[in-house]
């Protein structure tokens, strides 16, 4: 995770420079970086490394380091970093190295706080204009550590020092959620409200003013709104909750799904039962079966009895199945799956060839990828559904890890969460292209899932995730059962 944050800081720090240099080194070599052979990439890495002695500005070093990282030459990247930090002891590269190797390695709030104070003493924020976001990452991490130790006063103290409003919610929201989970609604509520209000500000801007920062900030609206309104609902403040939700849905109707759970509860609390029933029906029809008790209660109240409920329930589920069947048609492809031979957590080789005759589900993921992890309970439930089917195999392909200790981290993550997954390490580079398996499959973002039929052909490719366990189960069932059918039959169905 810390390496991912460092990458973000490196990119943030180079933002203004990149805008000033339209034909920078990265863009100049983009063809090799994206489509070059392994020989071409190695040649570029060697050329860049040889040219280091001629570099003058710190940003030139940073660009070279970023390209070497992209090329997978970590040894050269580390060597250039050492040279740069010696040459620019008070520069941003040395600062970022300190953040990675000292601050993020510190354990506990006391050690992190000490490291943070040393950071701002040696590398004051004022010395790095337009790089405030780098410090905001650190402040959010420090506040999060205090929150986990149930020290809200210190957590809030550091959150209030954040600089970038568009990113502020990424510190306030998780800290608020952590405090909320610990039962501290008094401390959590104001933080969640700040995150919600910030997101509302950006989401309600005129379209011509919505730059990438505004769009990023707006993405957190449903999460912060749901958490804050959830507090109001639990307090019985339904009218205020409802007012906030309907205000949100007016400016951002696309957020409706994310607000549905608190919306129906607020409607019920204000005695708008028919509207609550309609929202609940839609939720249930999208696979959120955990709302069934409330749905039953409203059904009985509005209809005077439970007569006809089972037929109604079956209709909603049938509607969901049809919706999923239509949806997966958009994911359908047909091409031979790239062969692979990767090691699992036990060090055993697992190949695609050895699984011929089975439907294989591949799930590309990383420990730092929150959307990947959000989908795991649903994927676990889907795998359990097929645990007695010898003709179906789930494989969880761990890819794009950037920490040197990734294998230890992966094992720790799987064991901590007790996931019964067959995990394979995607760390074998192709001799010709230098790509790992994710690259061979054309993965551009994770999570990415592939369903491969018994003959070794990719039949479905889907990206993104859902935290909805029941929906994932039903979706995976439709995908797997479709992949079991001969290709022609599947395309006609």
Descriptive overview:
The protein is α/β, with parallel strands linked by helices. The protein folds into three domains: 2-269, Serine Threonine Protein Phosphatase 5, Tetratricopeptide repeat, CATH 1.25.40; 273-329, no CATH class; 332-492, Glutaredoxin, CATH 3.40.30.10. 62% of the residues lie in helices and 8% in strands. It has 25 helices and eight strands. The strands form two sheets. A six-stranded mixed β-sheet has the order 1-8-7-4-5-6. A two-stranded antiparallel sheet has the order 2-3. A hairpin with a 5-residue loop joins strand 2 (341-343) and strand 3. It is globular, with a radius of gyration of 25 Å. It starts with a helix and ends with a helix. 37% of the residues are buried.
Write the layout of secondary structure elements.
Layout lengths: L1 H12 L1 H6 L4 H4 L1 H6 L2 H13 L7 H14 L2 H14 L4 H12 L5 H14 L9 H17 L3 H8 L5 H17 L3 H19 L8 H7 L2 H14 L3 H14 L4 H14 L3 H13 L6 H12 L5 H21 L2 E5 L4 E3 L5 E3 L7 E7 L4 H16 L6 E7 L7 H12 L5 E3 L11 H4 L7 E5 L4 E7 L5 H16 L2 H6 L1
Parallel strand pairs: 4-5, 5-6
Antiparallel strand pairs: 1-8, 2-3, 4-7, 7-8
**What is the beta-strand fraction?**
5-15%
Number of strands: 8
N-to-C span:
43 Å
Largest sheet: 6 strands, mixed
Helix/strand/pairing category: alpha/beta
Mean pLDDT: 89
The percent of residues in helical segments reads 55-70%
- Assigned CATH class of the largest domain: Mainly Alpha
What Rg, in angstroms, do the CA atoms define?
25 Å
């Amino acid at each position: 995770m810390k390496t991912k944050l460092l990458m973000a800081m490196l990119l943030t720090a180079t933002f203004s420079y990149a805008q000033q240099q339209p034909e920078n080194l990265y863009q100049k070599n983009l063809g090799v970086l994206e489509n070059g052979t392994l020989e071409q990439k190695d040649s570029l890495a060697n050329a860049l490394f040889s040219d280091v002695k001629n570099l003058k500005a710190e940003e030139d070093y940073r660009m070279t380091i970023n390209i070497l990282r992209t090329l997978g030459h970590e040894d050269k990247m580390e060597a250039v970093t050492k040279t740069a930090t010696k040459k620019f002891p008070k520069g941003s590269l040395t600062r970022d190295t300190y953040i990675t190797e000292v601050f993020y390695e510190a354990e506990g709030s006391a050690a992190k706080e000490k490291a943070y104070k040393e950071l701002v003493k040696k590398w004051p924020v004022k010395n790095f204009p337009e790089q405030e976001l780098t410090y905001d990452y650190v402040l959010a991490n420090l506040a999060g550590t205090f929150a986990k130790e149930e020290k809200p006063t210190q957590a809030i103290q550091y959150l209030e020092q954040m600089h970038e409003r568009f990113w502020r919610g990424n510190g306030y929201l998780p800290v608020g959620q952590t405090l909320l989970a610990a039962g501290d609604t008094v401390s959590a509520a104001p933080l969640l409200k700040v995150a919600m209000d910030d997101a509302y500000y950006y989401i309600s801007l005129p379209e011509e003013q919505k730059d990438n920062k505004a769009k990023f900030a707006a993405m957190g609206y449903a999460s912060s709104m749901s958490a804050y309104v959830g507090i109001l609902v639990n307090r019985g403040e339904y009218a205020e909750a409802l007012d906030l939700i309907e205000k949100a849905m007016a400016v951002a109707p696309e957020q409706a799904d994310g607000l549905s759970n608190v919306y129906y509860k607020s409607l019920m609390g204000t005695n708008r039962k028919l509207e609550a029933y309609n929202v609940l029906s839609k939720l249930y029809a999208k696979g959120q079966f955990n709302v069934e008790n409330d749905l039953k209660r409203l059904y009985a109240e509005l209809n005077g009895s439970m007569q006809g409920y089972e037929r109604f329930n079956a209709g909603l589920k049938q509607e969901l199945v049809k919706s999923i069947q239509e949806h997966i048609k958009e994911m359908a492809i047909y091409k031979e799956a790239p062969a692979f031979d990767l090691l699992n957590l036990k060090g055993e080789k697992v190949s695609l060839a050895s699984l011929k005759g089975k439907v294989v589900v591949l799930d590309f993921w990383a420990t730092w990828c929150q959307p990947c992890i959000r989908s795991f309970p649903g994927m676990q439930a889907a795998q359990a559904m097929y645990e007695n089917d010898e003709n179906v195999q789930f494989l969880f392909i761990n890819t794009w890890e950037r920490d040197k200790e990734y294998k230890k981290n992966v094992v720790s993550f799987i064991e901590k969460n007790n996931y019964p997954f067959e995990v394979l390490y995607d760390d074998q580079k192709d001799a010709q292209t230098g790509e790992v398996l994710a690259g061979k499959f054309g993965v551009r973002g994770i999570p990415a899932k592939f369903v491969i039929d018994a003959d070794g052909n990719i039949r479905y490719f889907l990206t993104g995730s859902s935290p909805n366990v029941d929906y994932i189960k039903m979706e995976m069932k439709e995908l797997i059962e479709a992949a079991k059918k001969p290709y022609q039959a599947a395309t006609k169905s």
